[in-house]
Amino acid sequence: MAIRDLSAADFNDTVTGNDIVLVDFWASWCGPCRAFAPTFTASSEKHPDVVFGKVDTEAEQQLAAAAEIRSIPTLMAFKKGTLVFNQAGALPPAALEDLIRQVKDFDVDAAIASQSHAEDV
């Protein structure tokens, strides 16, 4: 699946309208961002069931600010519209594959249910 360039206009719809979404916040001047790009692209080809998106933090400064991006690259993973991973730094290929496996296996519904139960107590 092709990597989607995300903007403020389609970010929320993409995150909430797909089961699993990985988002790479990057900038063209960022060396580690450019180094991570081939890893992100290769992973997108292995996982057609996952939406891979990129946010150019220079072009989408308001979106980057709303996402509280402090360092790039930053990778976020969403499952069923819920943020389940948020980390700055480029991941090596094996770590990215491990992250995707963990996100796929993560029971976000149970986590949300236990969180709301804890808030009720």
Structural write-up:
This protein is α/β, with parallel strands linked by helices. The protein has one domain: Glutaredoxin (3-Layer(aba) Sandwich). The chain is 45% helix and 23% strand. The protein contains five helices and five strands. The protein has a five-stranded mixed beta sheet with strand order 1-3-2-4-5. Helix 2 links the parallel strand 2 and strand 3. The N and C termini lie far apart (43 Å). The model has no long low-confidence stretch (mean pLDDT 94). Belongs to the thioredoxin family. This is Thioredoxin. It comes from Candidatus Mycolicibacterium alkanivorans. Participates in various redox reactions through the reversible oxidation of its active center dithiol to a disulfide and catalyzes dithiol-disulfide exchange reactions.
Q: Which features would summarize this protein structure in a list?
A:
about 120 residues, alpha/beta, Glutaredoxin, globular
Lay out the secondary structure:
Blueprint: E1 4-5, H1 11-16, E2 20-26, H2 31-46, E3 51-56, H3 61-66, E4 74-79, E5 82-88, H4 93-105, H5 108-120
Parallel strand pairs: 1-3, 2-3
Antiparallel strand pairs: 2-4, 4-5
Task: State the secondary-structure class.
Answer: alpha/beta
CATH superfamily: Glutaredoxin
Unreliable sequence segments: none
Number of helices: 5
Architecture per CATH nomenclature, i.e. the level-2 architecture: 3-Layer(aba) Sandwich
User: What count of structural domains?
Assistant: 1
| Estimated share of beta-strand residues | 15-25%
Order of helices and strands: EHEHEHEEHH
Tally of DSSP β-strands:
5
Question: If you consult CATH, what is the topology?
Answer: Glutaredoxin
Mean pLDDT: 94
Q: Largest sheet, described in full?
A: 5 strands, mixed
Keywords: Disulfide bond, Electron transport, Redox-active center, Transport
Family: Belongs to the thioredoxin family.
Pfam family, one: Thioredoxin
Protein name: Thioredoxin
